[in-house]
Amino acid sequence: MKIYDAYRLAIETGMSKDPRPEAEVKKVLSDANEAYEKLEDDRKDLFDTERLWNPYTDSRFSALAEESKDIDVTKVMWGIDIGTGEVLLADRLREKGRDISALVAHHPIGTARSRFPEVMSIQADMFHNAGMPINVAEGILKPRVDEVLRNVLGSNYNQAVDAAKLLGIPLFNVHSPADNMVQDYLEVLFSEKVPYRMSDIIDTLLTEPEFRSAARCNDGPRIMVGSKDDRCGRVVFKMTGGTSGPKEMYQKLADAGVGTVVGMHFPESHYEEARKANVNLVISGHMASDSLGINLISDVWEREGIEVIPCSGLIRCSRN
């Protein structure tokens, strides 16, 4: 398999677990194709053509994409956050004889960085799946998307990408597709092991190796709003959709019958809003949750003969 084909396989694997209706995902792609066709010829070369097949603006092949279409992949080094240091580490390992075909990031870098807030639209469908009217979900989400977009506009998005190009290391990132995987995995897990008390949520998470490994590093799942003996009510997960959603969501989720939200992490402003709405909050753990989603895609690669070398926070656990 070529490197670029492995990248496409990762995106398509995550698409299969997208929480949105299939028609909505297809509409994202059809809208991109329509926008491209309407462009004047002198603007088409400025268009991000990956949008024509990849619905996730937070996942892109940022360094040596064309070359990677002709290079076989055997091993990739995958980390949660990839900076210049990790690029140099990959180069150093190559010098020491490690066969590293490409470097993979989880969090958006390069051409995925500046537009990644667009994937937050996924959250509207997640809220709708939880019982919130779609017009309400979209209404409370839009100001938060705009806020995140403003926050990333000053990013030095190509710092690590430039280092990878100079050293000849293909570099891409896979964000929402991996997050879709953990969202789906935990929803299925908790539909089989229905929690009653808040402590049951922690116990269930700790049956998975990524969360157990994180707990050994003092970063296990924890209850942030509520207590272990409280009844959790209906539990929903916030694992995908770019980044944290709007704080206004908690009262709307409570109105829809949600008792507990489990997320990788939450901004400080969310805790008070959750308390006001009497919604419990559980942090599953950022590195552990990201690792779970990454591992589910890594397992697909592993079955294709591709080895994943973990770095930068990735807790590699194979389920093959």
Structural write-up:
This protein is α/β, with parallel strands linked by helices and 320 residues long. 47% of the residues lie in helices and 12% in strands. The chain is built from 13 helices and nine strands. It has helices at 3-15, 22-38, 65-68, 84-95, 122-129, 134-152, 159-167, 176-192, 198-205, 209-216, 249-255, 268-276, 286-303, and strands spanning 61-63, 75-79, 102-105, 171-173, 222-225, 234-238, 258-263, 280-283, 307-311. Strands 1-4-3-2-9 form a five-stranded mixed sheet, sandwiched between helices. A four-stranded mixed sheet has the order 5-8-7-6, sandwiched between helices. Helix 4 links the parallel strand 2 (75-79) and strand 3. Helix 1 (3-15) crosses helix 13 (286-303). The chain is globular.
Offer a few descriptive terms.
320 residues, alpha/beta, 5-stranded mixed sheet, 4-stranded mixed sheet, 9 strands, 47% helix, globular
Topology:
Blueprint: H1 3-15, H2 22-38, E1 61-63, H3 65-68, E2 75-79, H4 84-95, E3 102-105, H5 122-129, H6 134-152, H7 159-167, E4 171-173, H8 176-192, H9 198-205, H10 209-216, E5 222-225, E6 234-238, H11 249-255, E7 258-263, H12 268-276, E8 280-283, H13 286-303, E9 307-311
Parallel strand pairs: 2-3, 2-9, 3-4, 6-7, 7-8
Antiparallel strand pairs: 1-4, 5-8
Helix pairs in contact: 1-8, 1-13, 4-7, 5-6, 8-13, 10-13
